[in-house]
Design a protein that fits this description.
heterotrimer; A alpha/beta (about 425); B mainly beta (about 80); C alpha+beta (about 1000); B: mainly beta; Folate-binding fold; four-stranded antiparallel β-sheet; two-stranded antiparallel sheet; C: about 1000 residues; FAD/NAD(P)-binding domain; 7 domains; seven-stranded mixed β-sheet
């Protein structure tokens, strides 16, 4: 265990005088041992958060986080940093409300500036069906302390002056807007690095460039550890937080899961001076955007439902999103695409997450995080609880694998599942 | 934008097709005779390989055929296209 | 205004007979046709043309093409566009531009004060500070300071378009390798597209003074371009960028201001059989203290400015290199009259062929530039032996640098093909291809002209071979280009806090050293922590230097450090060009019924009805409130007669010997027992045992059925049925035809519907006995051939009159005329919603939200017990076997009859703030009960009928009485009448 170096304006000043030569590594690189009390596979947002909460809340530090590539290189490295809790079901809302609240305090908890910004999310409503959907969410969300606030179209135009489309004569006239006041954005890399730094300071061993190639089971069927090119690492508890690769790993232990790996994409514009202050979400047309502190517009939209382990974007999917964007922001036709990318993640059969023990004793999965960035703190804490106690905490209890046994889905989409 | 070689129409852009989900194992001919666990497995657990996957596509804006396509989930390479299942 | 004082009297590819006036940062200047904004600025002596992103350091033009990292401008007026490298802006008459990120101008920039704070804001500083009391305190000013150009305010004047193309061979780049490949493939008869980002073909040859076959190389270029122009099988685009390489060889091309059109741009989607990336190479910066000062320029850029634009970018130059290419550049700039003080070559051994190019110029081998003097522009440089020794000062106003060349592997890498480190070239070069792609020329590491031409030929021949064609090796003209060798110097001695690796994002050697010290050791960490390579140029000049610098510090080879991912686009592309014509009504094309115009002319407020249909929501009349209108329309149906347009309703004909078997499988109830002429309501479930859709099936003939689906689900249900038949039951003899658009209908409904039908005139016996509920009859209505169906979605006597779409306006007109004495009125979907709620009919999207099965809705009767199987049966049984309580459909009446309950409102135990036990799916003002009432899904709801429940709203609790969900005519006498 080491003492974490404090980050503050004062320390920055002090180190500046020493030409910044005094900064310590943000995390340790200890040698890989052959046995730990628990192994977390995947140093993405969920894996690192779980490691941090394991140490902090459960005092469990004999933990290895094994990462195939570089820490923070999972989907936490490629997403649209939208943090929100505008869900529809009793099972989901309290979980996301908790996660949003944990994000709100994360800069202080981790002594790492997440650049967390409660920018709010404005939903632009263009069909009566969507108006009804948002009203339903608003009323149930209120029970759990999450908020949607209706605003008239004129107020929407005031808050988002760049939104000049959707007028009365347009294809889908804007009928109203709802402001999700809890929504925030922050800096995704800071989330990964902040958790990694704090977990490492408490003694958790993060091993990068250590891909897990196989899960190992003992004669009793229980998990025994994992195989890596750097050798076998043993533990009685192995938790997977590897997003789209979940089934790739569980299948090495003969476990099949109701997950499909799909590709989710986003793109950014060139950086421009402030033009959009809030997160704008246009569910009817299928596009959402926010502007980063660097000035880039971060834009996401349609999904490609075909299975894919790729990190690029299909032109057809991309063009759908761009044309939707320009329908509401016609002046952005002059704005330029700077970079686009995709990430792959796994989606459960009912499109809700899975944080669960499995049929293999000692093997735990945290998967199906379709839009899992916002879930990192609460998902990580829930995974840590499961690792430490073997039981789910109440917030993640609805997301057990056992729900599929009787097809008791947690359906968030408001429609039937995608097949 | 995949290029799908429809056995009926020749190579066509993906935009002419609708995606119809992964090909599951064959539907149990008598669902009542299948155990609960097997039924849930058939219904909810699709093959999810980093590699070739079979999936259904409908040539909706073409000949109307349902196709089964063997596509690589990493490279997008399509190794086989056939009519029906 | 001085005419461009720095321009040479002759030479260059500018048209001195066409002077152009332009304005930059509020001052007027003049250039010539053929200039870029950058060359024109240099010709006018504008040295400080930009301010850097973070420190607001003065910057001048450093490059000559898309690689330009420093001078970004914002164009004003009709051509408004932000963040454009000045090197890629063709000069036009009246062009107005200003520097980005500087105020009031690049010359005098208030933000320059940031330079004083530089030591306090190293890489990642914001992660460590701005935390107290809250990030929100600092964020607004940081946001204002960030971002470069201002955001566009107005849509562009003019249009973009998209075009599809298919080609045997797409060649990206019309430099020597690309042109040669096009020539070979074009002569062989293949369909060829050659696309180049420059305003004219030639690539690097435009910037150099080389000969081919003893003639100026550009003569060869002109001859090839002329020959290609004569080939019908070749499309040659200039001023067009291949910006993305997608799966299955789909190439995205953005053509700017296409010739012979008024378009702003054209987005080509090119499906190429084979691709050759002949995208050239990009020169690297050298990394030393002060390497960003105005006057520091890529050697190739200095060469380009003298050769192509006749602009010497300085008077006295020092050249700093680690490779041979800078010697030819030196020779060219010296020939243009620039005094060259010395060539500083980091290599100990300088090849003789290079020295021979620069007779009389001092070559300082094994030395490096270690610092630059001059604040606002270079005045002198310090040069010192790399292995240590006394430094020496050289006066100069131009420092031309060459850190070696990087093949432009961007497109090649986007194709998912591998790139690999080449030790000899000290850079990444194309390796194994993942698609049908080859790299050729400098893009493949062939840095010398003769090799580039040979590779162009070889790539074309190989591509032709893969296309099943053959080609001829053309005569290869010999060139006077010399061999290229390089020995990397990743960072010069003393490189640190003022040594820029990423010029655009102000990332220095000190920054990456800090990142490494703090454990951000992976190249992705370095990039993200320092923001190196994340600017608009996406690190074109700097990324490999960052990798090199990291490798040097980690004691690894650059190969082990790895490369960051190349992502589209190669250069920024306007969103307008990407969307093309997909704007306005064609974003989601309308589907409208033959009556759309009538509806609009009669006060209808149109609603989106699903599947892109629009339907009347209600027909507004003067003096009515919304609720008045809905009440009036609903009452019209309950008390008199109404009419609505049902054309969008999904309709399918199911035909074949196994049609009945098929319907029995996809519906929960039995359809095969229907007799001809009769129909039945049914539900379809998903395999998950959840409701997919509802509709009515009629038997038209022993082997022929007509089914209806909900409007929004029609296409999905059609797709689903086809899939089941073609994939699951290919042996069943069933054919499905979508007849949604073949049958349009109007439904006449209400107690007086029969009178109206009679008044319209029909050869069908309309009496209840002859034509009962859930039957259909073919015949004529108002002399129009019609199929009349007795279904009811309102609970009243209804005749759904189906006709050919072209007859629908006539039918409607006849109904309105015949119904006038009975007070007929059109009814919109709002009133229909009231009517169906009063009857407890389900609605998709209200009661059916992806979680319910038929039992939940009190429709157990629709679940056949006779059939062994139907889709969804197994899953419904499995789910119900758990015994978990279900949410069931109930009716609700607020205790206060005048209290409306919002649709979607949650029901909680006692109205407390806790987990819900259900929600209100619908709530309407009932015209039969004259009060608000509604439907809800409530846990164990049916058992609780007669009791009460509580709607929990944020500020109040509404108590409701629970009742049977059918409020009106529970026995169905009216609809059967």
């Amino acid at each position: 265990m080491t003492i974490m170096q404090r980050y503050s304006a004062l320390s920055l000043l002090r180190h500046a005088l020493g030409s910044h030569r005094g900064w310590a590594p943000a995390w340790q690189s200890p040698p890989l041992r052959d046995r730990y009390q628990a192994i977390i596979v995947g140093a993405g947002g969920h894996g690192l958060a779980a490691a941090y909460y394991l140490a902090k809340e459960h005092g469990l530090t004999d933990v290895a986080v094994l990462e195939a590539g570089w820490l923070g290189g999972g989907n936490v490295a490629r997403n649209t940093v939208t943090i929100r809790s505008n869900y529809m079901r009793d099972e989901s809302i309290p979980f996301y409300v908790k996660s949003v609240a944990m994000f709100d305090g994360l800069t202080r908890d981790l002594n790492f500036n997440m650049m967390h910004s409660k920018r709010t999310m404005v939903d632009v409503l263009q069909t009566w069906g969507m108006v009804r959907d948002r009203r339903r969410r608003k009323l149930i969300m209120d029970i759990y302390g999450s908020t949607y606030e209706d605003i008239p179209v004129a107020e929407l135009r005031r808050r988002v002056p760049a939104l000049t489309g959707g007028g009365p004569d347009s294809r889908l006239p804007i009928l109203g807007a709802a402001v999700h006041t809890d929504a925030a954005v922050n800096r995704h890399d800071a989330v990964a690095w902040g958790y990694a730094r704090a977990a490492s300071a408490m003694g958790v061993a993060i091993h990068q460039q250590t891909p897990v190639t196989r899960l190992l089971r003992g004669p009793d069927g229980a998990i025994e550890g994992v195989e890596t090119p750097r050798g076998t690492v043993r533990a009685k508890t192995v938790a997977l937080a590897v997003s789209g690769h979940t089934t790739t790993l569980t299948e090495t232990a003969g476990l099949r899961l109701p997950l499909r790996t799909i590709n989710l994409t986003a793109f950014v514009s060139e950086p421009v001076k402030p033009v959009v202050d809030v997160i704008v979400n246009c569910p009817d047309l299928g596009v959402y955007l926010s502007q980063s502190d660097k000035g880039e517009l971060v834009i996401g939209g349609a999904t490609d439902l075909g299975q894919s382990f790729r990190r690029d974007i299909k032109q057809s999917v991309f063009e759908d999103t761009v044309s939707a964007l320009l329908e509401l922001f016609p002046a952005f036709a002059r704005l330029k695409l700077m970079r686009q990318w995709g990430g792959h993640l796994d989606m459960a059969h009912d499109a809700s997450p899975i944080v669960s023990m499995t049929d293999i004793p000692g093997l735990i999965v945290s998967a199906g995080w379709w839009g899992g960035y916002k879930a990192i703190p609460a998902g990580g804490a829930g995974l840590a609880h499961l690792i430490a106690t073997g039981r789910p905490d109440p917030l993640v209890a609805p997301f057990g694998l056992n729900r599929f046994r009787n097809l008791d889905y947690v359906v968030e989409t408001g429609t039937t599942t995608a097949r | 934008m995949l290029l799908i070689d429809c056995p009926f129409c020749g190579p066509r852009n993906e935009s002419e097709f609708s995606f119809g989900g992964p090909a599951l194992t064959p539907r149990p001919s008598d669902p009542a005779a299948v155990s609960d666990a097997d039924w849930v497995d058939w219904l909810t657990v699709p093959p999810n390989p980093m590699g070739l996957v079979e999936e259904r596509w409908w040539h909706a804006r073409g000949c109307g055929s349902w196709l089964t396509i063997c596509r690589h989930t990493v490279t997008h390479e399509i190794t086989e296209v056939r009519l029906g299942r | 205004m001085a005419a461009d004082p720095y321009r040479l009297a002759e030479g260059g590819r500018i048209d001195r007979s066409r002077p152009l006036r332009f304005r930059f940062d509020g001052r007027d200047y003049q250039g010539f046709a053929g200039d870029t904004l950058a060359s024109a600025l240099l010709a006018n002596g504008v040295r400080i043309a930009a301010r850097s992103f973070k420190y607001h350091r003065p910057r001048g033009v450093m490059g000559a093409g898309v690689e330009e990292p420093a001078v970004l401008v914002e164009l004003k007026g009709d051509a408004a566009s932000g963040n454009r490298p000045a090197t890629t802006v063709p000069l036009t008459e009246g062009l107005v531009a200003r520097s980005v990120n500087a105020w009031p101008s690049a010359r005098f920039d208030i933000g320059a004060a940031n330079q004083l704070a530089a030591r306090f804001i190293p890489a990642g500083f914001y992660y460590k500070t701005f935390k107290w009391p809250d990030w929100h305190l600092y964020e607004p000013s940081i946001r204002r300071a960030a971002g470069l150009a201002s955001a566009p305010k107005e849509p562009p004047q003019g249009a973009y378009e998209a075009r599809h193309a298919h080609t045997d061979l797409l060649i990206a780049g019309a430099g020597p390798a690309g042109l040669m490949a096009a020539l070979v493939a074009g002569r062989a008869g293949a369909r060829v597209m050659i696309v180049d980002e420059g305003t004219e073909a030639g690539g690097a040859l435009l910037n150099r003074c080389l000969t081919l076959g003893g003639q100026p190389a550009l003569d060869w270029v002109a001859a090839v371009v002329a020959e290609l122009a004569g080939m019908e099988n070749v499309i040659h685009l200039q001023n067009a960028t291949v910006w993305a390489y997608r799966e299955h060889n789909l190439m995205m091309v953005q053509e700017r201001a296409p010739a012979n059109s008024s378009l702003l741009g054209r987005n080509w989607r090119v499906r190429a059989g084979q691709v050759i990336t002949a995208t050239g190479a990009i020169e690297r910066m050298m990394v030393f203290q002060g390497n960003d000062r105005p006057g520091v320029m890529l050697a190739s850029a200095a060469q380009a400015y003298v050769n192509r634009w006749a602009v010497p970018p300085g008077r006295r130059a020092v050249v700093f290199t680690n490779n041979d290419s800078a010697y030819a550049a030196t020779a060219d700039i010296a020939r243009a009259g620039i005094e060259v003080a010395a060539i500083v070559d980091a290599r100990d051994g300088v090849p003789d062929h290079s020295r021979a190019l620069v007779p009389g110029i001092e070559v300082l081998a094994g030395q490096a530039v270690t610092s630059v003097r001059g604040g606002r522009r270079v005045r002198a440089v310090s040069v010192a032996p790399i292995r240590g020794g006394a430094d020496r000062q050289l006066d100069c106003d131009l420092l031309a640098v060459s850190g070696g060349w990087n093949p432009a592997v961007h497109l090649y890498s986007q194709s998912r093909s591998k790139i690999a480190w080449n030790e000899g070239l000290a850079t990444f070069v194309p390796d194994a291809p993942a698609q049908a792609v080859r790299a050729a020329g400098a893009a493949n590491g062939a840095m010398e002209l003769d090799r580039a031409l040979q590779e162009g030929v070889a790539a074309a021949l190989a591509a032709l071979g893969d296309l099943g064609r053959s080609g001829q090796v053309p005569e290869l003209p010999g060139s006077d280009d010399l061999p290229y060798t390089v020995s990397p110097l990743w960072t010069a001695p003393g490189a640190g806090a003022k040594s820029f690796l990423d010029i655009q994002n102000d990332v220095t050697v000190a920054d990456i050293e800090l990142a490494l010290r703090e454990g951000y050791s992976n190249i992705e960490h370095v990039k993200r922590y320092t923001t190196g390579g994340m600017g608009i140029d996406q690190g074109k000049t700097g990324n490999v230097n960052i990798i090199g610098a990291v490798a040097e510090r980690q004691g690894k080879s650059p190969d082990e450090v790895g490369v960051t991912t190349f992502r589209p686009p190669y250069t920024p592309v306007e969103f307008g060009a990407i969307a093309g014509r997909r704007a306005g009504p064609v974003v989601l094309p309308y589907r409208h019924t033959p009556l759309t115009r009538w509806h609009k002319n009669n006060g209808a407020v149109m609603y989106e009805a699903g599947a892109r249909w629009r339907r009347p929501g209600y027909y507004r009349r003067a003096g009515e409130s919304f609720q008045d209108t809905v009440n009036r329309e609903a009452r019209t149906v309950r008390e008199g007669v109404g009419i609505y347009d049902g054309a969008p309703l999904g309709k399918y004909e199911i035909k074949g010997p196994d049609a009945g078997t098929f319907l029995d499988w996809i519906y929960t109830n039995v359809m095969s027992s229907l007799t001809v002429g009769n129909g039945r309501y049914g539900l379809m479930l998903t395999d998950d045992g959840l409701i997919l859709d509802d509709g009515v099936a009629f038997r038209l003939a022993p082997d022929r059925f007509l089914i209806s689906t909900s409007t929004g689900n029609a296409d999905a249900v059609g797709q689903y049925m086809e899939k089941l038949l073609q994939i699951e039951r290919p042996d069943w003899r069933v054919k499905i035809t979508n007849v949604t658009s073949q049958w349009a209908n109007a439904t006449i409904c209400g107690p007086k519907a029969r009178e109206v039908m009679a008044a319209m005139g029909s050869d069908i016996d309309l009496s209840p006995d002859a034509f009962p509920f859930m039957a259909f009859r073919d015949g004529h209505v108002a002399d129009l051939p019609a199929r009349v169906v007795r279904v009811s979605f309102t609970g009243e006597l209804s005749f759904e009159v189906n006709v050919r779409p072209r007859d629908l306006p006539a039918l409607w007109k006849a109904a309105m005329a015949a119904g006038a004495p009975f007070g007929i009125a059109p009814v919109g979907s709002e009133a229909n919603h009231v009517l169906r709620v009063e009857k407890g009919f389900l609605s998709l999207g209200h009661e059916v939200d992806g979680t319910v099965d038929p039992h939940d809705l009190g429709m157990s009767w629709v679940m056949s017990k006779k059939k062994d199987d139907f889709i969804g049966k197994r899953s419904v049984e499995l789910r119900r076997a758990s015994g978990r309580p279900r949410r069931e459909l109930v009716g609700i009446r607020p205790l206060d009859p005048n209290r409306q309950v919002p649709e979607g409102a949650p029901l909680t135990p006692g109205g407390r703030k806790e987990a819900t036990e259900g929600f209100v799916t619908a709530c309407v003002w009932s015209v039969v009960e004259n009060r608000w009432l509604g439907l809800a899904l409530l846990t164990d709801g049916r058992a609780r009928i007669g009791g009460r429940a509580h709607v929990r709203l944020p500020d109040e609790v509404i108590e409701v009485e629970l009742c049977d969900p059918i409020f009106h005519d529970p026995k169905g006498e009216r609809l059967r009448s």
